[in-house]
Design goal:
160 residues; alpha+beta; 4 helices; 28% helix; globular; disordered N terminus
Length: 160
């Protein structure tokens, strides 16, 4: 009796797994193979406009339903207005030198990749002279064929 229950549970899991479809992916997956170099370009292009101190470049990186945790925000960030405020606050720190110490890309499919980075930021005239942070961002291709961050988790490394 116990074995037949186990078999039924296993079959149910296999059946449900086969029916699961990721939400909000484009109707037809991209035919182009996503490379590590392309993923890095996608993830870093908005940062090229950092010097303009315009949060719009950073804001376009996030999907409307992006969620995540930021170093200075305890609760889950779960709406577009919160991401806009976080980006404005970040730019207000006036970091004029941003150095990526480590970057790792993990391609999950042609429509999803993860970027993990470790970044040093310094400011010559902002309220904070320097900080280091690490972030893990999940990028997903949206229905408009552009990649956006759908999940972000950033934190400060522990003090030695």
């Amino acid at each position: 009796m116990q074995r037949s229950s186990l078999v039924l549970v296993a079959l149910s899991i296999v059946t449900l797994t086969g029916c699961h479809k990721p939400a909000d992916l484009p109707a037809a997956a991209s035919k182009t193979r996503l490379t590590e170099a392309e993923a890095v370009r996608i993830a870093t292009a908005p940062m090229a406009e950092w010097d303009t101190k315009n949060s719009q470049a950073l804001d376009t990186m996030y999907a409307p339903d992006a969620i995540g945790f930021e170093p200075n925000t305890a609760p889950l960030v779960a709406n577009g207005a919160a991401w806009l405020k976080i980006n404005k606050d970040l730019l207000a720190m006036k970091f004029d030198k941003v150095t990526v110490q480590m970057r790792k890309v993990q391609i999950l499919s042609n429509d999803v990749f993860i970027l993990t980075s470790y970044t040093d930021m310094t400011s010559s005239n902002g309220p904070m002279s320097s900080t280091t942070w690490r972030c893990t961002d999940v990028f997903q291709r949206q229905t408009d064929d552009k990649f956006r961050i759908v999940n972000e988790h950033c934190s400060y490394p522990p003090k030695p």
